[in-house]
Structure formats: structure tokens, C-alpha cells
């Protein structure tokens, strides 16, 4: 296979993912093109890029979801490669095909693979064919009578989960606790699916109580080499969206780890996967069984924790693969030697999860041993109300889990300061200090079960604290008089 060269990379994204990809491109002396909507004209990713192209107004449909404008921006800027990051068009097979048809290199798996894995029903059937365990369920449901019949025949008890067949990110997913909720939940899931993904196809699955969310990072080249970079634990979620991830998982023993990782490799080899992708599983702690959930055909938000424990650059691997290079390592070469933790800093009220947008009037970013930051903002930057609320990823690493958690505590409680907007920081700190988190005993329901307790642990910190410190200092000097050091 002929090796290609990269002249310039357009990042079809904004914020954190755009900045992350630009860092690797800078390391490799590859010029980059940023795209931006009108409210993002002063965004961090725009300043970082070598070239920036305005692609439309604030609504995503007019800018970051506009495929033709993205391709025009690439051609106009002389970019011969497009990296989609995560979110927006990253898992859109139509966009991937348009990029390829325009003679531009697409950084990701083939449009065919994206389409297969983007449909949860088809993905589940392929997983079953590859002998990968799947959750008991019913595909392509059009009426609640089908659900009732399936539950009766298969002896499935509530709760169950109704899911949109397309998409992800927690949209179109509704948990049903009893039969009275079934009709409304079914209608809600179909409505959300239609609105978010343009496809109201639905499937139903048994809800795994006390489930743990385990995912396996895969990298694969165009020469048939498929390697796993071990697993991540992504169990702590709010509204079916992850907020804390770690690697390795505290849930798995070594035998289970090997089994689940090689199961993921087998599936990705079966579908002809290339570049980087993730196989997601739900793990039932009570039975020690795991079940296939989905394949994310893109770079994951939490890829950084895998990079920290393996020392690899996953974005760099993706670029190497599309250049036609072979993976420079074998499975036996991958030996994780650290523990890593990531928290997602979203611009949200930590008590209600309602969005908090505005200008960041003050920003102090954590530093020190074992800390890695992936940010999409700077002090004075605006957080617009039109896009995802994630503005920073805070990662820590240590020799073991206790070490990584201790470093995260320092970063969140002592070194981080964000003013002008509300963030999830108080909630994240409460979680990592909770005895159940410290002991590794938690499930996907942890936040909803412990929310009041977590809120009670918040330590409010505002500008009043600084004023009180100054007042105390002035009072002390006034009382004691001038000191020798003054």
C-alpha cells in the first residue's frame, strides 16, 4: 500500500477536541485549519490554528453540522486531510463519504463501518455473529405490545431500557421502571430519536442493575493489524453521559480484563475497522458477565487516560494509519504502568445540571506533578449557549489508583479556579472523596442514588472568600502593628 503525506489538516470541530488534535499536529509540524461559527470567532481553537475559516452563524446546522461548508473550507485552505474529533459530524457516514469523494483524506474508519456501527440494531447483530455477548433485548420495536409480549415470553422483569437505534450520547434513551411508564417512555424515546438523529427506530433491552460501563480502546491499521490499548471504566454518568473515567478499571480481575479486551479485538477485526475506535460493554457486577453495548467509530473524549497509562498518542496513530503506515507495535508491546483518572468540566450548575453560559472572568488551571489538561478556553473566553457545555478535561496519573485520586483531589480543590460561570467541579470533588468511589464500589446509578449526599459535601468558594482573607489579614496587621518582614 502506497504511503501518503499530509500537507494540512482541517479539524471539523471546535473547543476541546479541536485543540487536542492541533497539539499533535504541532508536534508533527503539520499545519492546521480551524473552522468557526460567528460566536466562536475569538475561540481558543481559532487562535491555535495556522488558518481559520468562518463557516456560518451560531446554529450547528448552519456551521459545525454543515457538511458542504466544511469541505469547501478544506479545499479553500489547501487542507488535504479532515479530522472530525468527537461530536458533530464525527460518526456521520454521509460526511465521511463526501470527504472522500472530494479527494480529501478522512481520518476515521470507512463510511461503511460507520454506517454498520451507527445502527445499534445492526451492530448488535454483527456482534452476535462475532460471538460477542449481547444484552437480552428486542430489535426494531414499533409498538409497546411487542415489548409486553417479549417480556412475557423471555421472562424479563422491569426495569428495561428503550433506546434509539441511531446516535448516542445518552439521547433517545429512557429507562422504564414499570408497565405504567411504558407508553410515555416509548413515545419519548421515539420523539428524541427522531429529533436528534432523524430516525425513530427503537430497540428495547433488559436494564442491567448495578451495571458498570467498561470500554476497550482499539487501534487498527490498513494492513490488518488490530491492537487493544486495554480498557477504561466510564461508569460514573449523569443523564447517561459520562463525567468521570479511569484506566484501568478497578472492577476487572486480570482474567476478565484479557477476555473482554480480546473480545473487542475480535469484533473490530470482524468488521474491518481502521484508525482508533472504542468497543463499549456493560458489566454486571453481580454475575461477572459483560455484554456488548456499541462501537464508537471515532476518537473518544476519554482517550487521554489511555494515553497516560500507555504513553501513546492516539491522535498521532490515527494520522499515521491514514498515511498508510503500519502500527509500530504489537499487542505484547503494550504494557500499561500507571493509573489515570479524568473528570469532565462542563459549564453546568453542579446541583441541577442546567447549562451555565457566559464569560469566564477568571481561570486558574491546575499544574504540578501528574496533571494533564485538555482545554478549549482561556480567561476572558465566552461559553456560548449553542454547543456542548464541555470546556475542559482534567486528567491525573499516578503509580496506582490511590495516587491518581489524590492528585485529582489536589487539582480540583487547590489548583482549579473558574469564575463567571458555574461548573461541575464541586460535584466531581464530592464524588472522588466519597467512600464508595474510593473503594471502587459504584454503578451507573451512583450519582442519582447519592445526589443529595454529594451536594451536602459541596464547599462553596467564591470571591467573598478572598475578601474575607484580605479583611482578616488587614485586621491582624492593625492589631499587631508592623512586622519585621514588612
From TrEMBL:
Q: Which Gene3D superfamilies match?
A: ATP-grasp fold, B domain
Q: For the ATP-grasp domain, which residue ranges apply? A: 124-323
Under the GO molecular function aspect, what terms does this record hold?
A: ATP binding; ligase activity; metal ion binding
Has UniProt tagged this entry with the keyword ATP-binding? yes
What Pfam families does the record tag this protein with? Answer: Biotin_carb_C, Biotin_carb_N, CPSase_L_D2
Q: Which InterPro entries match?
A: ATP-grasp, BC-like_N, Biotin_carboxylase_complex, Biotin_carboxylation_dom, Biotin_COase_C, CPAse_ATP-bd, PreATP-grasp_dom_sf, Rudment_hybrid_motif
Q: Which UniProt keywords apply?
A: ATP-binding, Biotin, Ligase, Nucleotide-binding
Q: Where is the Biotin carboxylation domain?
A: 5-452
Record keyword Membrane present: no
Q: Which domain of life, per UniProt?
A: Bacteria
Protein name, please?
Biotin carboxylase
What is the native source organism of this protein? Dissulfurispira thermophila
Taxon lineage: Bacteria, Pseudomonadati, Nitrospirota, Thermodesulfovibrionia, Thermodesulfovibrionales
